[in-house]
Amino acid sequence: MNVENPLLKLESYKVPAVEKEIRLSDFVPGIFKTIRSKKGMKNAIKKGLVKVNGDRGYTADYIRGGEIIELYQSQNQIKRPVIELQLEVVYEDDHLAIVNKPAGIVVSGNKKWTLQNALENNLAKSSQDDALQRPEPIHRLDYATSGAVLIGKTSQAVTALNKLFEERKVEKTYHAVTIGVMNERGIVKTKVDNKSAETEYMLLHKLLSPRFTFLNLTEIKARSGRRHQIRIHMSEIGNPILGDLDYGKKGLKLKGKGLFLHASSLQFRHPISRTNLIIRLPLPKKFKKLFPEEWINES
Known about the structure:
The protein is α+β, with helices and mostly antiparallel strands. It has a domain at about 5-75: Structural Genomics Hypothetical 15.5 Kd Protein In mrcA-pckA Intergenic Region, Chain A (Roll), CATH 3.10.290.10. The protein has seven helices and 16 strands. Strand 9 (about 130-135) and strand 10 form a beta hairpin. The longest helix has 12 residues, at about 155-165. About 35% of the residues are buried.
């Protein structure tokens, strides 16, 4: 094994008898739990992470039966800083976790101060063979948005969770404070960045406001995951989110309190245990300063 590029073996597969020879790139999709897609396996082969009888495999190699095919994971990663930031871990097992992202931090990226760089100090390392050296966020929330972020702790979990998102099998619920006169419920389907997008909302409670006419406690479900989708859609129907400096109404932009948008719930089928998970987070303190406690507790 190359010491300069250490590899960790994830899985091994012995090829049974085959009727006719087949290219490696056509044979391997679906034989490993860690990576199931054809695209994912092609990328693994190109990166030298697939071996046939102990030698590096290539996409054009032919499989004739009886071979041992092994899938590896590179242990070399770009060095990223680890930051000290205490996170609320609302769910964790050996495969995945859900953390409550604070407002005012990006999920990932090239900056030092990211949620991803805080995960290593907040989550237990997985005991699985395909455990990631560093946990990986599956989706993103805006810098100013707080709430539930799903984290993968193993290669298999990351692949499976990404597929759930692609197939829209993760239900995301948000709570927001919007301003203005608002309908009881509705669905917004206008495009975002020239891509289809759908946002469903329901008005839970409203308060008269001298400055904003009404402050509305609103439940929102994002049926797609476009960047700034909820903020854009709420602004388009005339009910921008309180504290939205980008999409708010001129003269009605609340400054210094942050964005009143919180990812309050995730619901999905656990890709490993196959159990249904429903994770709910309480609303932030700033919501509680605007509305009666009983309204907040109902949400």
